[in-house]
Give the backbone structure.
Amino acid sequence: MAHVQDTPLRIIPPSYQKMSLVVLGLVALFHALSIGAQILVPLLFALLLAMLLNPVTGWLHRHGIPRILAIALSVLLAMVLLVGLGYFVTTQAADLAGSLPAMEDNFDDLYKDARRWAQRSFGMARRDVDQALEKVKEQGMDNGGSLVGRTITTVGTLFTFLFLLPVFTFMLLLYKRILLGFIRRLFPPRDQTIVEDVLCQTRVVVQSYLIGLLMQACIVAGLNWAGLLCIGVPYAFVLAVLGALLNLVPYVGMMVATILTMLVAMTGSGPQAALWVLLLFMGVQFIDNNLITPRVVGKRVELNALASIIAVMVGGALWGVPGMFLALPVTAILKVVFDRVPALRPFGYLLGDDVEPAQKLAPACAADPPRS
């Protein structure tokens, strides 16, 4: 009798089992990201900063400065700028928070005027008007104080890992060749072309994106400052800088900056100034969306609005305000990876604006080959 070789049976798991494993994996991933925030957040900031400083380090090295010294000088310059900006924002925000009691006194006058206006306009009883306006007053001042307090706490939290940022940045730049070589060795020779393309496009996208964001923040801060000075809002410069920094968090940051500035303007200069602040920030946002961002930030990686909002919400849920700042650069890097890996291209398409991006970024790296 002929011997029949047994063939192994292929067990195909049901779809609900696959989906359950995916959900459990995502839950475990987000939990790991949350508990590792103290290390991952400064490490990601350092990675972005290292990508931004890489051209500076290369320029210094090409002009005869030893590589280690060039890295140290570029990191030191970046830290001086960041510490100076953080110190200025923290001190000014502390002064603004200290002036909240005086603003509350001014708010009392506005409260009395609003009560008389409501009585004349709507014929409401004085007791009903007092109850409604008192509730609005308490909520407004509490929210304003907590908003400033959260801003100071966030900036203060940044200082807790600020000493890790230069160390991580220096090490990433120093061991760049080893890290890139490690990534290349993770993949077989047949995939090296895709790996080189991903590394090149990541460098191009992140560098252009971050430089564009810095220029955008400076322009927006200048427009905000000029407008607030014309309106006569107190603390115009710090509010302009905070508005420009919060504007880096899409869709949410500018709304928070507008509310905060309107509260300061209302208590410092009156309701009319708050209305002018609203019109000013709407105008600056229109200019930013239609003129500054397309020309300065560019469209190397186009993330659709839904993907951007979800990324910001996930970053905020994981790591707070620092996570909201990191959300878009990290999503942009993921999109570059998704667009270059055939099995992941549907996810890159989901993040984009219905444009196949694999052909858009190719000329950049063709003209500028990747360097290790």
